[in-house]
Amino acid sequence: xxxxxxxxxxxxxxxxxxxxxxxxxxxxxxxxxxxxxxxxxxxxxxxxxxxxxxxxxxxxxxxxxxxxxxxxxxxxxxxxxxxxxxxxxxxxxxxxxxxxxxxxxxxxxxxxxxxxxxxxxxxxxxxxxxxxxxxxxxxxxxxxxxxxx
Length: 149
Prior knowledge:
Protein name: Actin-related protein 2/3 complex subunit 5
Subcellular location: Cytoplasm, Cytoskeleton
Shape: globular
Distance between the termini: 44 Å
Family: Belongs to the ARPC5 family.
Keywords: Cytoplasm, Cytoskeleton
Organism: Basidiobolus ranarum
Helix content: 55-70%
Strand content: under 5%
Number of helices: 7
Order of helices and strands: HHHHHHH
């Protein structure tokens, strides 16, 4: 008789297979990302950084076969972050809801992983302000979430 009621061997990281919960095709995701990029750039050209960032963080592309869409979405988020004045960062961060802040944190870590592509000083400035608002919980949620941007 086993004293365990839960099969912990089934929880082994090596045996984990991501379920395909994606309901949209890759073409639909690519189309949505491209339309979002156009919309975000229009909002950004009007100088509305908070709205542009909120729109860029909305409905991020998740999945294994959408790397190109993820790269495009990351690029547009980094454009918004780079174009925002340092003094405006706290106001923009406070205007975001908790889900958007967690998605922003995912993009910040994605940007930190590619220092040759993105300005790390900008990313670290945003990281500092997001942590001041959300606390360490945001870091934990991002690092434990299997959905990556």
